[in-house]
Design a protein that fits this description.
Distance between the termini: 16 Å
Oligomer: single chain
Strand content: 15-25%
Radius of gyration: 20 Å
Shape: elongated
Number of strands: 11
Number of helices: 11
Strand order of the largest sheet: 8-7-9-6-5-10
């Protein structure tokens, strides 16, 4: 089981290098990131975009463009479609958004005829390292922080399944899923608590498998054994959740930013639910976050 980002990096270095295709990488940050990843032995890259610009920016960054494969397609829509095709035919193991609009990138990725659409809900998962406590360390997963604004009950089920799949790939055979709300009791005037209880019962009856699901939880008694004990919240998930299923994007996205800006956590992100790992980083993500996100994609691809 992978318990930390340091372990993840070492595990990737020990495996055969995976190839990541980047769409429209014409940006200083992306080129520097590629240079750093190659020098660290973390991945190989195919860059689909404006070849002249890519070579010029690589030279400015002190990076030998011969270390990557460059496919000259300046048009961003066409570049995205070609990158998806490379993944589908096995010439790349993961796809990454470069310097193009997210909508253009995702339209190619999720195209029902030619894309990586797997007839599932695609959801974002943010990973961070647990603070060591009596229950141990490891990763904690926060979802969905970027894609699904107000997921339905069925979409929440699939978002949980995406996170569970990622946990399994990292070696956690039975992750504990806490369905988060503002309180830890079912309140008829709070629909999120009712859906949390429904998801918990769905897991009990085998409609969600490979994990333990319980809820509703308030955030504190999902991650703190002391808070769970104080509030008399029992069960196998209470106080030591591996996966935090947030009620909506309005709760999840600010919490992700709090992890970065208030608690200074190292994070990585993953998009799950497609036929291959999809890498989308925020313009405000640090270089470390971007690199760890690439490492994660390389490991699970």
């Amino acid at each position: 089981m992978i318990n930390s980002f340091d372990e993840l990096i070492e595990a990737v270095k020990e495996k055969p290098r995976k190839k990541i295709v980047i769409v429209s990488p014409e940006g200083t940050t992306v080129i520097k990131l590629v240079k750093q990843a190659i020098e660290a032995g973390l991945a190989d890259f195919v860059l689909v975009g404006n070849e002249e610009t890519i070579k010029s920016m690589s030279a400015d960054a002190g990076f030998d463009a011969h270390l990557v494969t460059i496919i000259n397609i300046p048009d961003q829509k066409e570049a995205a479609e070609e990158a998806v095709r490379l993944v589908l035919v096995g010439s790349a193991h993961a796809i990454m958004k470069g310097n193009l609009p997210t909508a253009t990138f995702m339209r190619a990725v999720l195209d029902k005829q030619k894309g990586l659409n797997d007839n599932k809900v695609v959801s974002e998962i943010t990973l961070y390292e647990k603070i060591i406590n009596p229950c141990g360390g490891g990763f904690r997963f926060l979802t969905d922080c970027a894609i699904n604004v107000a997921p339905t009950l069925d979409e929440k089920k699939q978002i949980i399944e995406n996170a569970v799949s990622l946990a399994h790939k990292l070696g956690n055979p039975l992750p504990k899923v806490a369905v988060i709300s503002a309180v830890e009791v079912v309140n008829p005037s709070m629909p999120d608590t009712i859906e949390a209880a429904a998801l918990s019962k769905m897991a009990d009856r085998g409609q969600i498998t490979g994990c333990l699901v319980d809820g509703p939880f308030a955030f504190d008694n999902a991650i703190s054994p002391e808070a769970a004990e104080y509030k008399k919240v029992g069960g196998g998930v209470a106080g030591n959740a591996d996966i935090l299923m947030m009620p909506n994007l309005l709760a999840a996205n600010p919490l992700r930013k709090c992890l970065v800006y208030y608690t200074k956590q190292r994070i990585a992100t993953a998009l799950m639910g497609a036929k291959a790992p999809v890498i989308i980083t925020s313009r405000t993500d640090s270089a470390e976050t971007m690199l760890l996100t690439i490492v994660l994609a390389a490991y699970i691809s």
